[in-house]
Write a structure and sequence with these properties.
five-stranded antiparallel beta sheet; mainly beta; 2% helix; 2 helices; Neuraminidase
Length: 389
């Protein structure tokens, strides 16, 4: 758990934000074109204005195939960026050698490393430092001064690239900001506690947010920037974490570390969910490069469960030798390695996605959390540690 619950009960003043001095926001190049079926799909007719068209109406992750790097990121060195919440650093790992090659000093309590919508910047969420630290992924170095942003526990981007959405957990707010300058555009107070993770609908019109400390979910209208529905999870003490939508866009999964599994629901109807048990401390959710499987970290038992999307069933469970605390991470560009932070073990795990064996345990700083594998395939980023479409 990233901070004392008491912090959530303290309201903090939202600070003004200075513009980042880097390159202006531009849309990334779209190497692939949508299929005729995608262009004619019902989803295409109602998409969020300005959102890139779907490549495949049956697979939201069609742009994320192995090695399918955007021209924007094609020449970036392959690295794993690990925020160490207790050390106030980011460890930089070379995935070719499984060794830390650099340590970057960032703001106080970095929680996640988040790729920008246009793929050009990695934003380190310095939660208690109330800043975002920009990293240039072309060099792996800090790119400029920290940008003042209050309570940036996590960070997302609307699918049209217009807004950044700050999950201001302690402030109990969703803060819509300019996706480039981070200037505030709208502050949305929420009634739940601990907003932290999210994902977007196929048409980009809404997103679903988990509220960790009150066991609730929010449904948010993207264009109106307004909460339109709220649902309490049907378990006392529920603690929802990561959120992920299925490739076909019909099913939503919400990890719950106290329920030891995922809540499965229909996002459109936002009806009562059912629970699929995975393992103790269910936490992070990551889609395979072929869109067939989802990797599920079980932080409380040191394992990874594998869900088969087609059947809706768990087909594997991989255990980390000696145990561990697998938390957040991502999949390598070629799809062969799942990278996860070991939150309470000061290490990072590299896991082979063909058979689940642990390739390496890499020592890093204290409290590693939302690491980013970068670059990854995809046309644009929706945020977190790397949700690409």
């Amino acid at each position: 758990m990233r901070r004392r619950l008491a912090l959530l009960l303290t309201a903090c003043a939202l600070t003004a934000c200075a513009p980042f001095s880097g390159q202006r926001h531009t849309a990334p190049s779209h190497a692939a074109s949508p299929s005729p079926s995608a262009a004619a799909s019902p989803v295409a007719a109602r998409m969020l204005p300005g959102m890139p068209p779907l490549l495949d109406p049956n697979d939201l992750y069609a742009a994320d195939r192995p090695g399918n790097l955007s021209p924007v990121v094609r020449d970036f060195p392959s690295r794993v960026y690990v925020p160490n919440t207790n050390s106030d650093t980011v460890s930089v790992i070379d995935p070719a050698t499984y060794k830390v090659i650099d340590t970057l000093r960032v703001g106080r309590q970095p929680q996640h490393v988040v790729p920008s919508w246009d793929l050009k910047t990695l934003w380190v969420n310095d939660d208690l430092g109330n800043t975002l630290t920009p990293i240039d992924p072309a060099t792996g170095r800090i790119a400029g001064p920290r940008v003042p942003v209050h309570d940036p526990y996590n960070l997302y981007f609307t699918p049209n690239g217009r807004y950044a959405v700050v999950m201001a957990s302690a402030d109990r707010q969703l803060v819509f900001r300019d996706a480039h300058t981070m200037a505030v555009r709208k502050v949305v107070p929420v009634s739940c506690y601990g907003v932290n993770h999210a994902d977007f609908s196929p048409d980009g019109r809404y997103f679903i947010v988990s509220c960790e400390f009150s066991g609730e979910l929010l449904k948010v209208d993207t264009e109106e920037m307004a909460v339109v529905a709220k649902e309490r999870l049907p378990m006392r003490g529920a603690m929802p974490q990561d959120v992920k939508i299925s490739p076909d866009g019909h099913t939503w999964y919400v990890a719950d570390m106290m329920a030891d599994g995922m809540w499965v629901l229909n996002g459109d109807t936002f009806g009562p969910p059912r629970l699929l048990h995975t393992g103790k401390g269910c936490h992070g959710l990551y889609v395979s490069r072929d869109s067939k499987y989802m990797y599920i970290s079980n932080r409380g038992e040191g394992s990874v469960s594998v869900l088969d999307f087609a059947s809706g069933r768990l087909v594997h469970k991989w255990h980390i030798p000696g145990g561990g605390s697998p938390d957040m991470g991502g999949v390598s560009a070629d799809g062969k390695v799942l990278w996860l932070s070991g939150r309470y073990n000061s290490e990072v795990y590299a896991i082979d996605t063909t058979d689940g064996h642990t390739i390496a345990k890499i020592p890093v700083g204290s409290g590693p959390h939302g690491l980013a594998v970068y670059p990854q395939p995809g046309r644009y980023s929706l945020g977190h540690t790397g949700i690409f479409r």
